[in-house]
Amino acid sequence: MPHKPLQTYDRKMKRFVTASESKAVTAEGISNNNNYWIRGELWYNCVHLFAVGIIFAKFEDKIIAFFKRFYAVLMPLSVLAVYPLYLFSRFVCNTYS
């Protein structure tokens, strides 16, 4: 059976992303430097979005084609989702912070 380098690369990338996500979550969860979970982290510059970037780069053509095709539907839904998500975030902040 011939060697399939792309599948090997995909498996290694999945392991790497899983390991880095697990390390980030467990290391932050067990550290006693803060009273709150991931307090003060910059969410736009963290390991979770690194994994999203890897997935986006892998399927970039398909994702962009999807958004171009359904832009007329996705844009109004996104705008309509802002207010309920804002209310939810206020509820979470008022309840748990």
Topology of this protein?
Elements (H helix, E strand, L loop, with lengths): L4 H26 L16 H12 L1 H10 L1 H26 L1
Descriptive labels:
97 residues; mainly alpha; 76% helix; 4 helices
- The chain-level structural class is mainly alpha
Unreliable residue runs: none
Strand content: under 5%
**Morphology:** flat
Query: In which range does the helix fraction lie?
Result: over 70%
Describe the biggest sheet? none
Q: Specify the number of helices.
A: 4
Order of helices and strands: HHHH
- Report the count of strand segments: 0
* Arithmetic mean pLDDT: 77
Give the CA-CA distance, first to last residue: 57 Å
Radius of gyration using CA atoms only: 19 Å
If you had to describe this structure to a student in words, what would you say it looks like?
This protein has 97 residues and is mainly alpha-helical. 76% of the residues lie in helices and 0% in strands. The chain is built from four helices and no strands. Helix 1 (5-30) runs antiparallel to helix 2 (47-58). The longest helix has 26 residues, at 5-30. The radius of gyration is 19 Å and the shape is flat. The mean pLDDT is 77.
